[in-house]
Write a structure and sequence with these properties.
The complex is a heterodimer of chains A (584) and B (88). With 584 residues, chain A is of the alpha+beta class. Chain A has helices spanning 2-38, 40-51, 85-88, 95-102, 106-115, 130-138, 161-164, 176-180, 182-185, 224-240, 277-280, 283-286, 296-305, 340-346, 349-357, 361-369, 397-404, 413-424, 439-446, 455-469, 536-539, 541-554; strands spanning 52-57, 64-65, 71-83, 122-128, 144-153, 190-196, 202-210, 218-219, 245-252, 258-264, 314-316, 321-324, 327-330, 337-339, 486-496, 499-513, 520-527, 569-572. Helices cover 37% and strands 21% of the residues of chain A. In chain A, α13 (296-305) runs antiparallel to α20 (455-469) and α15 (349-357) packs across α17. Chain A starts with a helix and ends in a 12-residue tail after the last strand. Chain B has a domain at 21-57. Chain B is built from two helices and one strand, in the order ααβ. The mean pLDDT of chain B is 86. Classes of the chains: A alpha+beta (584), B mainly alpha (88).
């Protein structure tokens, strides 16, 4: 009985203890579920955040080369010095030697760290040279590290500066082809997960999150040799004539590719410390000017197209001036009764105006528009200007006359070069390309255009333009020994606010070579020559002559005018080995 | 008995798969380390290649070549009289 009493008397306690144990176990299970199931992601994330990091893996930007693969812009890896401010802020005694090694101001370093002291990352100096990187790391200052980045170098420097352009500190294209080709050149950085220690050093790479994708290499249409030649001659001419600026463009007539494009003033893209905004402009593409007499070949072609004029048709330019409405059109001097060819050779404004006034305005307009004047060249170059060619509907007599010798319209040097390339082939203005293009591609593009000027008129105009460079023409200094050159000079009064400025000119020469089977079209434009002479024939034509002579030789284009070189020694091919005189 | 046997097989399978995971993870790590080393070597070579290209580009700048040819080597453009044009 008593035993049963005992049992009965402890039953309550047992249940209590059991109940407490169950409760405690339940509590533990609940907590475990809470931690393992409900809060799992948060806690795991927090844990990983203590040591796991995703870091970016830089991908290099594609190379820009010239048409033969010579590098014009290369990215090479360099180191950027960065620090963990939380750690570095405590190493006050190291700041002075760190600042010295980085060649930065100690006060600037202090300010930088103070501003970012609760962050874990700050660049101290980006893109340092390898020596400096090694010196900084040799100091072994806790919290200071290197990160690989890419720096863009331009081996050709200022020679290709305007065409190639440059990138910003984050490797994005800012100007020129770097900007135009951004999509193709850009590399997509990869990402990898790494384990880092307290000081931010990478202890171990765990996995790759994303593969870095390097950018594509792009070959431009530029020929580095011609580019250098054009640059050298243009620079010398701008300096010699104390001019403000200048541009030169060489186009491949058959494909519409830009073989060379240079401007003055230029800049060095590798060192852009003190840079004037105006030096960045690729004037050959962005700046327009009135083309002046360089337009006359198209005026004459339009006149020949009617069938009413032939190269030997007489045009009376007496007495050397000609009134249209209230304006008087003047020639340099009175040329008297001349033929159409001589209008080009002597660059007669009166003659060109008379031809233009005898044509239907639409016909004249069509001749200009069909060679690409007044429209973009299709190059896709950033900031390209389309020039201006007003619609013939609004032309009164005076506009028809002035437009015939290149006033009242505006072009870029590239546009003018394109028009001359069309004149040099079959009258179709191929869209201009800065990227290498095949002959088939060019043929496909050409098929899209409807030429307005027939090949026979263009051939006749080219013959007239050869007389410009011959004795008695305005552009004799553009001649190249051994080659037939067709060209046209231009001397344009500059227009400013409120009309034309006195004694302020633009000297132009545009031409094609060799005239028998044109391969190259080139435009030279020199802005405000301040020397004694300011005529296109005196200032721009010599640049054309020198550059073209070198270009024809470099491109192995055979001379088409050997009779003009008396005393020139010739050798037949099988004799070449025997003749040690100087074959090339 | 039957359920017990099944349970045993399952436990074994879980164990084997767990060991498999450990092995695969270890292999993965090893290969990743190898990949990292190779990539590092590649990057090093890329650096060198880029620098060599740059160096070549700098030495071969046309203005420099011209200066050396004219000044140091005393070269000049041949006069027209000393040029022979070869015809096919």
């Amino acid at each position: 009985m008593s035993e049963r009493d005992d049992k009965q008397s402890y039953r309550g306690r047992r249940l209590l203890v059991l109940g407490l144990l169950v409760l405690a176990a339940g509590g533990l299970i609940a907590r475990a579920v809470d931690l393992q199931v409900l809060d799992r992601d948060f806690l795991k994330g927090q844990g990983d955040a203590r040591y796991l990091r995703v870091v970016e893996e830089p991908a290099h930007r594609g190379m820009i080369t010239d048409r033969f693969g010579e590098p014009l812009a290369i990215s090479t890896p360099v180191d950027s010095v960065w620090a963990n401010p939380r750690v570095l802020i405590q190493q006050r005694e190291d700041w002075a030697r760190l600042a010295r090694a980085l060649r930065i101001d100690r006060a600037a370093l202090e300010r930088l760290l103070a501003a970012r002291q609760d962050k874990e990352f700050v660049y101290l100096r980006r893109r340092v040279n390898p020596d400096m990187a090694a010196r900084v790391m040799a100091l072994e200052i806790p919290g200071v590290n290197l990160a690989p980045e890419y720096r863009r170098f331009y081996p050709a420097g200022e020679v290709t500066a305007h065409v190639v352009g440059f990138t910003d500190v984050d490797d994005r294209g800012q100007e020129g082809m770097e900007l135009a080709l951004e999509e193709r050149l850009r590399g997509v950085p990869g990402a990898k997960r790494v384990i880092k220690d307290r000081l931010g050093r990478i202890v171990e790479s765990v996995e790759r999150v994303r593969e870095p994708q390097p950018g594509e290499d792009v070959a431009l249409s530029i020929d580095r040799r011609l580019q250098y030649l054009a640059y050298r001659e243009l620079k010398a001419a701008v300096r010699r004539n104390r001019a403000d600026a200048g541009s030169a463009v060489i186009l491949d007539v058959r494909t519409g590719e830009v073989l060379a494009m240079v401007n003055q003033p230029a800049y060095n893209p590798n060192n852009r410390g003190r840079l004037k905004r105006s030096h960045l402009r690729n004037r050959a593409v962005t700046d327009v000017f009135e083309p002046g007499s360089t337009i006359k070949p198209f005026t004459v072609a339009a006149a020949l197209e009617t069938g009413r004029f032939r190269p030997e048709t007489p045009v009376d330019t007496t007495p050397g001036y000609f009134r249209v409405g209230r304006k008087t059109i003047r020639d340099f001097r009175n040329y008297g009764l001349i033929d159409v060819s001589t209008v080009i050779q002597k660059s007669s404004n009166v003659g060109a105006s008379k031809l233009a006034l005898s044509l239907a305005p639409e016909r004249l307009w069509k001749a200009y528009a069909s060679v690409g004047l007044g429209e973009s060249t299709g190059s896709g170059f950033p900031g390209e200007s389309g020039g201006l060619l007003t619609d013939f509907g609004g032309w009164r007599d005076i506009q028809r006359a002035t437009v015939s010798y290149g006033y009242g319209m505006s072009v870029t040097p590239l546009q003018l070069a394109r028009a001359y390339a069309a004149l040099a082939s079959d009258g179709r203005p191929l869209p201009v390309s800065f990227v290498r293009r095949s002959a088939e591609e060019a043929a496909e593009l050409a098929a899209l255009y409807e030429p307005a000027l027939s090949e026979s008129s263009l051939r006749a105009v080219r013959r007239m333009m050869e007389r410009v460079v011959a004795r008695g023409g305005t552009g004799t200094r553009a001649a190249v020994p051994g080659y037939r050159i067709a060209g046209k000079t231009g001397t344009v009064k500059k227009s400013g606010a409120g009309g034309y400025v006195e004694d302020s000119y633009i000297a132009v020469f545009a031409g094609i070579a060799p005239a028998s089977d044109p391969r190259l079209a080139m435009v030279v434009m020199i802005d405000e020559p301040r020397g004694e002479k300011y005529y296109g024939g005196a200032v721009a034509a010599p640049v054309f002559g020198k550059v073209m002579a070198g270009a024809l030789r470099l491109l192995d284009i055979p001379p088409d005018d050997l009779p003009s070189m008396p005393g020139q020694r010739l050798a037949l091919l099988h004799d070449a080995a025997a003749d040690k005189g100087g074959a090339h | 008995m039957r359920i017990g046997g099944l349970l045993g097989v399952l436990v074994l399978a879980v164990l084997v798969s767990a060991l498999g995971v450990i092995y695969a993870k270890h292999e993965g790590r090893k290969l990743f380390v190898q990949l990292q080393a190779l990539e590092k070597a590649r990057d090093q070579m890329n650096v060198e290649w880029g620098q060599l290209q740059l160096e070549q580009g700098t030495w071969a700048t046309h203005s420099r070549v011209e200066r050396v040819a004219r000044k140091r080597l005393g070269m000049e453009m041949p006069a027209p009289q000393s040029v022979v044009i070869i015809r096919k």
